[in-house]
Design a protein that fits this description.
The protein is of the alpha/beta class and 364 residues long. The protein has helices spanning 20-38, 42-45, 48-61, 66-77, 84-91, 108-113, 116-122, 140-144, 204-210, 247-250, 311-320, 331-339, 350-353, and strands at 169-171, 180-182, 193-201, 223-226, 258-261, 273-275, 295-299, 304-307. The chain folds into 2 domains: 11-144, no CATH class; 169-320, Glucose Oxidase, domain 1 (3-Layer(bba) Sandwich), CATH 3.50.30. The mean pLDDT is 96.
């Protein structure tokens, strides 16, 4: 929100018990009255340039994969088409400069006292749209003027990044034709290119009940697959994506495995977790066709997620696949299931995201 320009500078990282919250609340209250008087509306702030800057900020922070869905949906409500390709293109040009967990060492409190987002954005001025307005200043350039980094270990300089590319990668392949994401900065490097056999769980409860069963024969080389956890399959796309590692492997010292799903995960989670696979399995995406024992390759460098099956076998399995029965016949559940979009388009209601004008109720 601060990168978009819709908060006061420095608002996004104030520690929970810091008195800065009271001061920020008072400053925000004063400013919002001025915004009304000046008729400065969100539509003037939330431009394509603002969304592009927010994308660059998330990637340079090594931020949450959830931000991908949120920003695509918000841009859609603003009448702006933001896509996974925009994230992928920016990720290849923006380094990770925030040395923050889970990809780095420090906490958000450290980030705040190192200068917060104004200082951080000051490291990215070459990729930002500095002449766009914010709620606090006529231009972002003026907003960042004078912002200082107080700890270059927390907010790294451009010549000493935490990683040379953005912290979230967009994947494509026959398992995710409409895309998937991975926060690869928070994964063990050895797993960024990995091939292994799948162990498939059809739902989260089954996975919870059976993941520690030695009879499944799960090894560190396996690829754990969870399906029916997407926007419709969840329903609601819950944060199931950080699948647990079997207890007996944890006792052996295993701390990461490749895990793939059509779910989300918390921004503070870590691991080689491929998320947001689209289309989701519940609507017949390729994830629905995977079987235990199938070989899957994750290659983050190539931005690829591939299921090693001939096209003919995939077609045969698709012809045998049957859609799950509808959960809801009426009411909100039926409306949700009918209108919710897939992860790559923001998991928004189609009728709210469609192009068009909304008439002003106070006119006429």
């Amino acid at each position: 929100a601060e990168a978009l320009g819709v908060t006061m500078p420095g608002a996004s990282s104030i520690p929970a018990v810091d008195s800065g919250h009271d001061r920020m609340a008072a400053a925000s209250g004063r400013r919002v009255v001025e915004l009304v008087r000046d008729d400065l509306r969100l539509s003037k702030i939330l431009t394509r340039e603002a969304y592009e800057d927010a994308v660059a900020t998330v990637l340079a922070l090594g931020g949450s994969t959830n931000a991908v869905i949120h920003l695509i949906a918000m841009a859609g409500r603003s009448g702006i088409r933001l896509t996974l390709d925009d994230f992928d293109r920016t990720a290849r040009t923006v380094p990770v400069l925030a040395n923050l967990r889970p990809g780095g060492r420090y906490l958000m409190e450290d980030f705040h006292f190192a200068g917060g987002l104004p200082a951080f954005l000051g490291r990215l001025t070459d990729v930002l749209h500095l002449d766009r307005p914010t709620v606090a200043h006529p231009t972002l350039r003026e907003q960042l003027d004078g912002a200082l980094v107080h700890d270059p270990e927390v907010i790294r300089p451009r010549d000493n990044p935490l990683a040379p590319e953005g912290g979230v990668a967009v994947l494509r392949g026959n398992l995710c034709p409409d895309g998937a994401v991975i926060k690869h900065i928070a994964a063990e490097p050895r797993l960024l290119k990995h091939t292994g056999p799948a162990v498939v769980f059809d739902d989260y409860r089954t996975m919870q009940r059976t993941i520690n069963d030695p009879g499944l024969g799960i090894t560190p080389d396996h690829v754990l697959v969870l399906r029916n956890a997407g926007p419709k399959g969840g329903p609601g796309m819950p944060e199931y994506g950080m699948l647990p590692i079997p207890d007996y492997l944890l006792k052996q010292g295993v701390r990461d495995m490749v895990r793939i799903s059509d779910a989300r995960m918390s921004g503070t989670s870590y691991g080689a977790c491929v998320l947001h696979i689209a289309p989701e399995s519940y609507v017949g995406g390729p994830l629905a066709l995977v079987r235990t024992g199938d070989t899957i390759t994750l290659d983050v460098g190539a931005r690829s997620l591939h299921l090693h099956l001939p096209d003919g076998e995939l077609a045969r399995r698709r012809s045998e696949w049957t859609a799950p029965p509808e959960r809801y016949q009426r009411g909100y559940g039926a409306l949700y299931n009918e209108q919710i979009t897939q992860a790559d388009t923001g998991c928004d209601f189609a009728f709210l995201a469609k192009p068009g004008e909304v008439p002003d109720p106070y006119v006429g």
